[in-house]
Specification:
521 residues, alpha+beta, 11 helices
């Protein structure tokens, strides 16, 4: 590969250039691509590589990964076995390349990944607005670094301002008519991207990954549940092959320290203390000798201990069902028939996203951050258990089956499982969203309708004196795009209406995988 060339700076402001340089390190170069895509004149490959770059080119990335594996295998310093490894974008490319079945590939070590179909299911029709806008701004900065002569003064000034403060792009209605419309010449259809018509995450066939897989994620990673499902898919597709999963108390970041959000989980919680790189090296040194063949190492938050299991969820996990009750309770018995609770949600005054599984590319901070103030909002329903007499370990899947009726053609259900501590702090554990028009396949109405909201996976000990909490709200902005309640998308519409959401308590439930005792520290 040719050495990296210094970026052309032109008139690009430093605030634009720095994110572009950082982003460049996350993208792959190209080695003799097996199938060239349409060329964009003047858009060279990454760093010193050949070919033409496009902002979204997953099929080409797969071919390039195949070629990279085979090129490395031919080098005199290689024994002919190659591991594809990467985090986030690089992890996705690793799976895409593995699905091409390069002959010299010996394994995949990927962290914090998702696929298109898994992302669509998890988002339930909503869009991770802050992630999409931040990604767009970084890609625009990278494009501008490469082609400064293609941008007019207004485009440069707009991009500079939005990199410093993306809020005007996030709060604009319609989104497509906001400041992002002033980014001219960028080789992505921005209105189509904001409307969800641009596939920003790819798909791969799990059965095509015919090598051992070692995947890593964090409980506060925006792709936590998707990465765990990548492990489960690998096990189902090839149960004869060894596979590993490691999940720590981490967010979607590189260092994976022992502190996230407001909490410090102890020095053993970091990826360094858990020796994740050493685990990977030992695993790939001789995967055939791995015992057990499928192993999960997960960090049980609250107990702040590493545990192991041979499956996910652990085989000893058992389902427990809790029901919201009048006056904000959460118990084992359903509420009386006909009991209804509800709230009015104004899309122009959305519930702010705070902590949890958000991405840090914009201004949001992921992890356990106190949500106590949100419980005081009239548009957030909260249901809490009594204080626990004994610790309770929620380890595995979490879902909510809610029966709702609404006064408008659309509404979002943003649902969270939270840990309410004795001192009153409220920390997020798992979360999910359902956009009613999407999950129902039709406009919503005032007919009571049962909706399932997948909250993904968790490993949380609720300690003695703690309470489990179920929160239901109409938004989590700007992490998720606003539902205007009219049925029209916020990408092209500015008309918003307040929606009344009624929750029918007797027909609603929270289901948890609960672990009596499992694993070894």
């Amino acid at each position: 590969m040719a050495p990296r060339r210094a970026p052309a700076r032109g008139a690009l402001p430093d605030a634009v250039r720095a994110p572009a340089d950082l982003l460049g390190r996350a993208a792959t170069g190209r080695l003799r691509p097996r199938r060239l895509r349409r060329r964009l004149p003047g858009h060279p490959g990454r760093f010193g590589s050949e070919g033409d770059w496009e902002p979204i080119m997953w099929d080409q990335e797969a071919h390039d990964a195949y070629d990279t594996v085979e090129w490395v295998a031919r080098q005199e310093w290689c024994d002919g076995r190659v591991i594809l490894a990467g985090t986030s974008y690089g992890g996705i490319v690793s799976f895409l390349g593995a699905a091409e079945r390069p002959p010299s590939l010996a394994g995949v070590a990927a962290a914090m990944v998702t696929s298109g179909s898994r992302d669509l299911r998890e988002l339930g029709g909503a869009m991770r607005l802050e992630q999409v806008v931040s990604w767009l701004l970084y890609m625009a900065a990278d494009w501008l670094r490469r082609r400064p002569e293609d941008a007019d003064a207004e485009t440069v000034a707009t991009l500079h301002a939005l990199l410093l403060d993306p809020e005007p792009a996030l709060t604009a209605l319609p989104l497509a008519d906001g400041p992002l419309a002033r980014l001219r010449g960028f080789p992505i259809d921005i209105p189509a991207l904001l409307a969800g018509r641009v596939p920003t995450t790819p798909e791969w066939e799990p059965a095509a990954i015919e090598v051992p897989v070692f995947v890593t994620t964090g409980w506060f990673d925006v792709f936590a549940s998707a990465t765990i499902d990548a492990f489960r898919d690998a096990v189902r597709a090839h149960p004869d092959l060894p596979h590993r999963l490691v999940v720590g108390p981490w967010a979607h970041t590189g260092p994976l320290p022992h502190h996230t959000g407001e909490l410090n989980f102890g020095i053993t919680a970091s990826a360094g203390a858990a020796a994740v790189p050493a685990q990977q090296l030992a695993f790939f040194a001789d995967p055939a000798a791995a015992a057990p063949r499928h192993e999960v190492g997960y960090f049980l938050m609250g107990a702040d201990q590493w545990r192991t299991a041979d499956a996910w969820p652990p085989r000893a996990a058992r389902a427990r069902v809790l029901h919201p009750t009048p006056a904000g309770g959460l118990g084992h018995e359903p509420a009386p028939a006909g009991t209804v609770d509800g709230y009015a949600h104004d899309p122009l005054d959305p519930v702010p996203s705070r902590g949890g599984r958000v991405i840090h590319l914009g201004r949001s901070t992921p992890g356990p951050i106190d949500l106590g103030r949100q419980l005081d909002r009239p548009d957030v329903l909260s249901y809490l258990t009594a204080e626990l007499d004994e610790p309770l370990d929620v380890v595995g899947g979490v879902r909510a089956d809610l029966t709702v009726s609404v006064s408008r053609p659309d509404a979002d259900l943003v649902v969270r499982l939270v840990d309410v501590r004795p001192d009153g702090r409220v920390y997020p554990v798992a979360e999910g969203v359902a956009r009613l028009s999407h999950v129902l396949g039709r406009p919503a109405d005032d007919t009571p309708t049962r909706v399932r909201v997948d909250l993904g996976y968790a490993a949380q000990r609720f300690g003695r004196g703690h309470r489990l909490g179920l929160l239901v709200a109409g938004s989590a902005f700007p992490h998720l795009d606003r539902n205007l309640s009219t049925g029209a998308p916020s990408s092209t519409s500015a008309e918003a209406r307040t929606v009344v959401v009624d929750l029918h308590l007797a027909e609603s439930a929270l289901s948890l995988d609960v672990l009596p005792q499992e694993g070894r520290p």
